Structure formats: structure tokens, C-alpha cells
Amino acid sequence: MAYFTPIQKAPSLALPRMEMAVSKSHNSVFYPLDFHRYAADGDYLSWSAKRDAKLVPIRFFPADSAHQVAKVWKKIAPSIVSLLDNHNVAFDAIDCACRRQSCADLTTDLSNDDHTVVITVRTLPEITPHLVKILDKIHDITGGLAVEVRQGRVSTLSLPQVGASFGDFRNEKANGTIGGFFNLLKKNGDIFAQCALVSDHVVRPYVTINAEEMPRPAAENMQPYYHRTKQIKKLKPIYCTSPSQPRRWKMISNYRKAMVQLAAELIVCKTSSTDRLSKDELQELEKKKSAMQRASTRDINKGWMIGPLFAASGYRLSPHRRRLDWALVEISQGFPSKRVNKVENSNPQYSHRHTRQILHADKPLSNVGVYKQGATTATTTGVINPLRSYVTSYDADGNRTVTAEWCVIPDEEYECFAQSGDSGALVLARDSADAVGIIFAGHLDGGPAYFTSMQAVTSDIEEITGLYIQFPGVHCNV
């Protein structure tokens, strides 16, 4: 079996000679060596063996599709899942990506192999002979890749426009992202309904048994939802709003803090003998206060009832065993009529354009630059990792499923690609703004996000509803 040489040195820095050993740093366990011991003191970068050293953070970078592990990852990844299961090692996700410290000197100078099998667990295990044996086995079956067990969590990432927040009218905690707007067509081409595409786990929120476990769907939400079926007609409709209630309360809190601060400034200026303002300056502050009051009243009162839930995937897998987590909310008459899928432009070739319109959907491709527009983290960019990630989820009874999912590694300027509240955001190709997927989960402490391809989503929508899906103005080409 070929041995992929792990990082041995950085050309611009002297790296001490090391023996094979398991080590712990960065809330991670590394095997066979810990190559992430660089500490920064201002502009000075040095190798440090001290336990309390302030180490440069480690970041995810996309794997190289030409790397030898890319040829075998699909075959060996299930073996890693089975190995961890057999030894009762509970994990949230298994990624195969590059891991390196986020320092310019390192990211530009390193030419050695830093591909790593990253196992994300909720509680970091103690270093025992038993753990070493497991990590050595993974190191061996991957042909010598470094192995990292990191403490973290993967979870669902739960003005009406693409990327706006939305929630369930009855649920004060539901908070997700409007991915985009779609027409549902009859066979003759007539529009049957206009809907917003969102995430099912936000509309029908997952339940949390305890803080240590991953959220799971309620028993009644396991199966698909379609409002025209006899069973669903007997239930109360589920209505969705934009913005979500958490976003509305945050907005109120921000305005309240700003008003208090401005009021304090006015009091100081009126009473202080040293910081007195002129009459014109005081009038300007009063105008600013009035304008802020008008804006806060307008934004707090502004909001729309999007409409009732039209259809949803339930907790199911696609024919290719990918997670399905989509929902369609039918747009009511009171919702603003202009529903164009406009997003920020992320293609430098069209720098003269601030926005672009999503007109098509396409298949996701490895190593392609993508971006998303979410309610929590706004616009972020990243790259589709060429190797699938193996992600854990649970059904209503607590039965675990591990699925191979598409993964986006955030670009270096972003800590994460998506965060809580971004579920439902569309993953868009940077060059074309074509929709390639919909986000359903990600790492809560930053890093990768996971998405289902638009091809799987649109096929499932058509199967459940019997209707065809179309972006406003042009047919979906998936």
C-alpha cells in the first residue's frame, strides 16, 4: 500500500525531528504526529512544544482531487465508519480534507501533504492504547494519511428576499433561510402554485432530547408532507413568516441598545460644561434620534406572513442515499408580488453588476467555487470538497444513519460557510449563480457545511407533488 508522506517541514521554518506519537492540541487528538504546533507572537512565527502556547488556529482547506486518496476514498470511508462503530466511537461527521494552520507563511510555503481524515466528536476521548490502535488502523487503510479527532458539533443550521430569515408562526425558536422562489407547474405548463424553498427541519422543527445529542425529527414529521393528501387536510395548517421571531427580537434588541446609547449622548451633551455642543449640533443629534425611532418602528412592524406549508420531504434519503431536507411554503396574496431570485454577484468578471439572478439549477462539481446568501452569515464563499463527507443523523426513534454528503470548505477569509439560521440557503456556483444545492447542516464551531444537490431536491419535489418545478422566468435544467 502506498504511503502518503505527512507534513515533515515548512521550507521557511525549521521543524524539530519527531517520533511517531499521539498528541493533543487545538481541542484535537492527532496521529501519528502533531504538525500544528506553530505559535505566533506578533509577526514572529515559531515552533512551540509548550502546552500553554497560543497556537495559530487550524483551518479546513479543500482536498486535492488528484491526490491518491481521492481514488479510493469512496471505498475506504465506509470501512472507517464501521471501524468506529465497532469500537463504539460516536461521531458527528468524517471529513477528508486538508488541515493547516491559518498563517500566510505556512499556507503559501508548505508543499508537503496535509490531507487529513478529520473525525468530529462531541467529547474528546482520552489518549489510550485502544484509541491509538483505532487511529493507527485508519492511518493504515488510508495509505498513511494523518488522522485528527476534533471536538465539535455538527447540527442542522436552522424583507422577503433570497437569503432572508423565516420561521414558523407558532414557534418562537424556528429560524432558517429562504433559499429562493419557485413556480410549480401542471403538466400543461400552467402555474399551480408559487412557493418559497426552505428547510423542512425549520418549518417542522427537530426536537432535542438532551444537550449532548443531535436534534431529531418528531415522529409525526418523519414522512413527507403534501397539503392535498387526506391525512394532511385534517391537520391544522403550518404558517410561516418572514422575518423569523428570533430575528425580529434581535432587531428590537439592537434598536433598543442604539437608542439608549444615543439618549445617553444627548444627556451628556446637554448637561456637561466641558462637552457642550452647539445648537446646530444638538439639533442634528435630535434628528438622528427621530430618524432612528422611525426606522425601528418601521422595521419592527414590517413583516409578512409568507403562507402555509405546501409540501415537505420528511426525514428521508434520496435514491442515492443523500439526506433530503426541503420544504415548500406556498406564497399568500399578502406577500410582496415581486419574487425575483436576486443574489449578490460573486463573479469578478461581472464586477460592474452588484446583483445577479438565479435562473438555472445545475449539478454540483468537485473543486468548483461556490457561495451562498444566508440569514445569519450573509454572503460567504467556499469550494466544493472533491471527497464526500460522512455525516451522522438520527430518526425519531434515535436510530442512526450515516450518509455521504456534498461538503463545502469555506474560503480562508471566512471562519465558516454557514451557521445556525442558514439552513435552506442555496449553494450557488460563483461563475454562473446557478443553484447546485441546498444547505441542511454544518459545524457549529466553524468549518465545513453540508448540502443536498438540487437534482435530488427537484426530483423528490416532483415525485411527491406530481408537479414540475421552475425558477421564475426560466425552466430548471436539472
From TrEMBL:
InterPro entries: Peptidase_S1_PA, Peptidase_S1_PA_chymotrypsin, Peptidase_S64_Ssy5. This is Uncharacterized protein. The lineage of its organism: Eukaryota, Fungi, Dikarya, Ascomycota, Pezizomycotina.
